[in-house]
Amino acid sequence: METAQSKISFTINGKKVERRVRSSMLLIDFIRNELKLKGTKPGCLGGECGACTVLVDGVAVNSCLYLVINVDGKSVTTVEGLSGEEQSLDVVQLSMVEHGAVQCGFCTPGMVMAIKSFKSQCDHNHHTPDREEIKKNLEGNICRCTGYVKIIDAVEALF
Amino acid sequence: MNYNIIGKRIPKIDAGDRVSGKSVFGYDIELPGMLHGAILRTKYPSAIIKSIDISKAKKLAGVECVITADNVDTENLNFRKDHPVLKKGEVNCIRDEIAAVAAVSKEIAEKALELIEVTYVERTGIFDPLEALKKDAPQINKFSKGDNGNKNISEAFHYEHGDLAEEKKKSACIITRQYVLPKVTPTCLSPSSITANYSTVDDELTLYSSTQVPFLYQREISQVLKMDPSKIRVIQPIIGGGFGTKLDIHPFEPICALLSIKTGKPVQILFSRKEEFIHSAIRQSMVIDLTTGADKNGKFTFREVKIIKDNGAYTSWGVKTSFVIMQTFSSLYQVPACVYDADAVYTNNVFAGSIRGFGNPQATFALERNIDLMAEELGMDRAEIRLINANFPGEISGQGLEYHSCGHKPALEAVIKHSGYFTRNKKNNQGRYKRGIGLASMLHVGGGAKIYPSDGCGTTLKLDTYGYLTIITGSSEIGQGSETVLAMMAAEELGIDLKKIKVINTDTNVKPWDVGVHASRTSFVAGNSVLGALKKLKEKLSDKAAQLLNTSLEDLVFENGTIRSEKTGNSFKIDKIVRELHFKPPHELCEVSYYYEPSSEFQDKNFKGNVSSCYAFAAQAVEVEVDTLTGKVDVLHVYVGQDVGKVLNPLGLEGQIEGGVVMGLGYALSEEMIFENGYLRNFSFHDYKVPTARDIPEIHFYPIETHEKTGPYGAKGMAEAPLVPTAAAIANAVSNILGVEINSLPITPENVLKAISNKQSDQG
Amino acid sequence: MDFRTISPQTTEELLEAIKQNQGKHFRFGAGYTDLIPELEMQMENGLIVINLAKLKDSNFTSIFLSEDGIRIGALTTMTDVLSNKHLQKFPVLIEAVESFASVQIRSVATVGGNLCTASPAGDVSCALVALGAVSEILIANGQIRTVPLTEFFTGVKTTVLKKNELLRSVLIPHQKSAERILSGFIKIGNRNSMEIALASLAYHITTDKNGIITSAGTAVGSVAETIRYTESACEFLLGKNMDQLSEEDKETFADNVLKYANPISDIRASAWYRHQVLWNISKSIL
Fold it and tell me: What SS3 class is residue B612?
């Protein structure tokens, strides 16, 4: 039978969450409005700007185009999940800071998550990407301040 | 001069919070008991409103307040006070606000909007400024005073210098062209937001606003709402992009305030991306008719300019772009005569705003295209004609701009050299892909711009007993990195660690006055202000230190958190000196205030005068490749030579240059707001095409240091400049490569292919 | 946006859900990258979404080699296609997928979704049409019917699918062994990423060792109501020597491609441009 509400159980930033949610609720709304994790940014809500990028099972997705019911049983990481107890910032975040890849900062959390996913995949395949590949992997994240150069520099320095 | 911090690559002091998602943007604010506001806007760009029925909306459960022009008491908004907050009787552009709702949730507020019944009688709108100028055209804005010769001219600017007739006689070549520039929008990554919180107890209104000009904002909001300005507290949460869009007040802001005043509760309005596209400030479209001349040696003789700007239905600060554009025509390169007219014409289009570059990208596009055409006609090299006419140090332009420092020629020389202009531009260019290089320069204010009675900035410094410094600056950080530069200056002067410096800049109840973020002025004006305050602070510390160290003031050095005597080598920690001042006689805190006013002057009624303390010059060379089968233009390299006075923070400076160039690239190649009869047709990132990471060229930056005597450490304003000449240089490159004339933007594949095809049919 | 969902996990549950809801208004949801923006723009009252994200049926979710060709499940994502080793021999498909949206969207958007959305601009669909792929449609009674993709699209955003059917997979039939392959996807846009094609051309042409063209598949996007297979252009090439095509041959080929183009003018581009650029790129591939 079709349902207006669904029970979901998943982990977010390493912590288990169980909730009843509206079946049509978007992942970004759950993250921002229910969990109050405001690091994930609603830039366009149309999958065009990438500011709302989060990781689902380690893979970057637009949380504005993802139903929260479909993270059931999965693991979600938001930008808040990268700052651990041992280290205040992840290597991706440190590199962004160091290379001047941040201006207004609204695209930044989504950028960080897209880069995090890319970095894990490259590491997994023992692959060192060139600048063109880096750009290709940032194509879904719009930045209007930096002209992307410093962001690409920050990614390049990770390898 | 050797510096410890100035000139070093220093990451932004707020970057850590940004990358970790900890920064609270305006869009992220939640206040206890907060309501959600939504705005009903017109269905038609031009219509009579017969009636508005809000009765059903008011009855919807969860709705706390519905406002229309009938139940609020407000003054008009914006530069000419020609813009009602809520519209009554008629609507004049597709942005027009008719009613607003505050409700317990966004969904309910939006539902309530659907229940408001408006009866319209649709009118034929006027969307072409030339139509609006016709005698029989109706008056579009009923508040227009019609004091500029036509009821539909909002502002008219006339300027001239030199003897036009005489200079025309001297001209060996005269080029006349028309340039058509589109409307574009900066698409700040965060859609607009505001949260208003009115206290019925003490009549205080707190606005969490993304304004770039908090004090002008406070004053104008007070006028609009008929409140005491000091009862309005403006708090500036982190802004997700500004680019000039937050210079004007937009109706949603007083609307949100009104909803909070009426309900006595906090109210928040958040724009969707679609609203951001339609309802936020844009760069205005222009038609520029330009005639320019040069003598047989290529020396420029005159310029004659007539500009029609689409003002839209209301008049924003953006109308003042005529003033910056005038400067480019009167004073970029040496030119003995200039006659300039610019009219901002009311239409039923969305109204223009103030966007980074402030009219200069449009002006520079026209001028630099004409320069290429003059070179061609004279049989001169395009670089040569620019070099012989370049501005020079010591020049006072026809308009009265004083170039005590001027890196125009070195900037041109740098990009000509590094781009390989003379070698690479001559390559054989047969086949599908053709390459070439285009040039353009620009002039912009570099030391503020006196367009308000004061162009100054206040600073208060507070050095605490632990040796930490708090800089309370009037200026605002909108992502450009100015607060980092201010902190660097303090670290440099006081010899204390950057980590011990805090910058407070977000609360009008706390910070001293500043005119706001515009005109590339913050590092210059706020920087000079901080340096003035630091001087006072150092005097205070030095007096005490000299006494403690038993030496003279000249003997003291500030370093490593101490003040040291050069002679004896003895030193005191700075915090110790603060404690000595505080806890022992004279029992004084280590706090100082300083207000800096730039040396610029108000221009006279003929627009003559030195409006800025100094001027920024830049040149760009772009190498492009055109695919002649698809018309696609690929910009391979952009070489930027820019007179920045002095590099304060290379990391931040490069970021501004790169971001500006890419914004200029979007303006050149792909961005255009497409309007049909007053309706915007492309209101998503899907259809409005900003550059992606895969569209960017290699950007090569050559800072020119001219050590401007009025600038902090010799620096000038720089942040608008990089986007100004980019489109012009690209259009020049494409035109030269293909032997066509690209005289409008954007240079889409279609427009290029059309130009190629027209050329072929002309020849065929 | 408000709707109810059914999330079948097995094919039986899926078929049951389809049968149960024949009298109601329902849509299928797979990657949601088209459905969510569409519903955000215009919500449909009383909508039920049959959520395919949890379906565990390898016919839907895998790419595998079979006797008759390579079968791509409708729920395989674009990223799955890019990383599949069997599909690397079809540059037309790989290039089309690479040109599609962004890495975030490719990770969730499905091949079936691209086909069923039936956009005239569908990149991956265009490549699959050029490859002569066949749709395999699951009917609520459990049977499968097949329809060549050349006949799959019936108009803008419409397909042959009936209310009691859904796309299960597409089959790329085995190609004749070839000495040389000329295969690629050209997408025309105003920028290099995140584009909707203003015009697109998918081509997959093979030759024998003498350079004689033994098979040719070309399709065009964004120039007609649907993606179109340019049959006469393909026939024109068959039997010709790839290395000895004259300028006139190339132009005849382009003229033939253009026969299938009936572009419109919209905010993205004019009909004139679509026409012109399609002719230019068609000629350029040979």
Answer: coil
Give B537's pLDDT tier (boundaries 50, 70, 90).
very high
**How many Å lie between the alpha carbon of C157 and the closest alpha carbon of chain A?**
19
Model confidence over A81-105: pLDDT tens digits? 998 777 889 999 999 999 999 999 9
| Domain extents in chain A | 7-82, 91-156
Question: E strand or H helix at C265, and its extent?
Answer: none
Pairing relationship of beta strands B562-565 and B556-559 according to DSSP bridges: antiparallel
Q: Do A109 and B19 touch (CB under 8 A)?
A: yes
What pLDDT, on the 0 to 100 scale, is given for residue B672? Answer: 98
Is C269 in Cβ contact with B691 (below 8 Å)?
Answer: no
Cα torsion angle, C37, C43, C44, C46, sign: positive
d(CA B680, CA B486): 41
Average of per-residue pLDDT values in chain B? 96
Closest CA to B284 of B246, B324, B329, B321: B321
Look at residue B543 and tell me whether its pLDDT is greater than 80. Answer: yes
Residue C33: closest CA among B680, A27, A8: A27
Pair B154, B148: CB distance under 8 Å: yes
Give CA–CA dist B341/B306, Å, rounded. Answer: 5
A104–B188 C-beta distance less than 8 A: yes
Question: What is A91-156's CATH topology?
Answer: DNA polymerase; domain 1 (1.10.150)
- The alpha carbon dihedral of A54, A50, B632, B635 has a sign of negative
H-type helices in chain C, by residue range? 11-20, 35-41, 58-61, 78-83, 91-98, 103-106, 111-117, 123-130, 149-152, 231-237, 247-258, 271-285
Q: For residue C274, what are its two tokens?
A: 């679509």
C246 and B CB contact within 8 Å: no
CATH fold label, B286-449+604-763: Aldehyde Oxidoreductase; domain 4 (3.30.365)
Quick check: A105 and B479 CB within 8 A? yes
- Token readout for B476 is 């605002």
Residue C195 structural domain: 180-285
In this complex, how many residue pairs, one in chain A and one in chain C, have their CB atoms less than 8 Å apart? 94
* Paired tokens of B533: 């305050």
Give chain C positions within 8 Å (CB) of A139.
102-103, 192-194
Contacts of B273 (CB under 8 A, 6+ apart): A43, A44, A45, A46, A49, B191, B683, B684, B685
d(Cα B253, Cα B86) in Å, to the nearest integer?
A: 11
What pairs with residue A56 in β-bridges? A59, A76
Query: What is the rounded distance in angstroms from the CA atom of residue C127 to the CA atom of residue B556?
Result: 75
**HSE-up (13 A, CA, CB side) for residue C83:** 11
- How much is the average pLDDT of B40-68? 98
DSSP C46: T
Homologous superfamily (CATH) of A7-82 is: Beta-grasp domain (3.10.20.30)
Angle at B302 between CA B298 and CA B307, to 5 degrees: 125
B589, two tokens = 């805190």
Q: pLDDT tens digits for C111-148?
A: 999 999 999 999 999 999 999 999 999 999 999 999 99
User: Which is it for the CA torsion A140, A141, A147, A148, positive or negative?
Assistant: negative
Token pair for C41:
């723009």
Strand partners, B291: B176, B304
Sheet architecture: strand order including A59-62: A15-22, A5-12, A75-77, A53-56, A59-62
Is residue B627 left, alpha or beta, with left meaning phi > 0 and alpha meaning psi from -120 to 50? beta
The verdict on domain B15-22+456-596 having CATH code 3.40.50.9100 is: no
Kindly state the percentage of chain C with pLDDT values over 90: 97
Backbone angles phi, psi at C139, to 5 degrees: -95, 155
Q: Enumerate the H helices of B3-102 as residue ranges.
A: 15-19, 55-59
